Amino acid sequence: MARKKVRPRLIAELARRVRALREQRERPRPSQLYSLDYETLTRPHSGRRLPVRAWVDVRRESRLLQLLGRLPFFGLGRLVTRKSWLWQHDEPCYWRVTRVRPDYTAQNLDHGKAWGILTFKGKTEGEAREIEQVMYHDWRLVPKHEEEAFIAFKPMPEGTLRSVPYPPLLRAMILAERQKNGDTSTEEPLLNLGRTCIDPWDYPVKQEAKRKARGTPV
What we know:
alpha+beta
């Protein structure tokens, strides 16, 4: 029987898969990529030192997998938040953990990936996705007995006041600008408080998009 010829496209596809498999095997694991020397505050893999503003958090706060590794079943179903969210937002911001894949090559299982459902400023997403920035040292676990009070949130009614008077200095500047332009309007200048559809600057999706442009993860 004549030997069946292999089409060039199949050979090229097979070679591409082999290269992808080799790259995946040679890719550093999270425990190697984000390991940290706590004496010099330098990542051995990249040789980069953490920014100065992160030094305090590195010594006081924990990474996400450090918190989940201390809990049964890696904290599935628990709520986790970030210190920066607690400082910047009055509305509840947290992740509900749905899946954890630890890096079993790490000594204390304190590296890996996690998935969950995000609630940001009181708005909950419909599907679970990978949690970004798990290697940052600002994660906090919401205690079990405080979860109900933590997630309690009453959205602002639609009929509430949307405009407020300007501060005195800004009001005087606006009136002076009107007088300069010859505007004889007597309408009181008001500051519009209507909500916009733009996501906040620290929304996790935006942070993930800018991760490569920023410095070393903390």
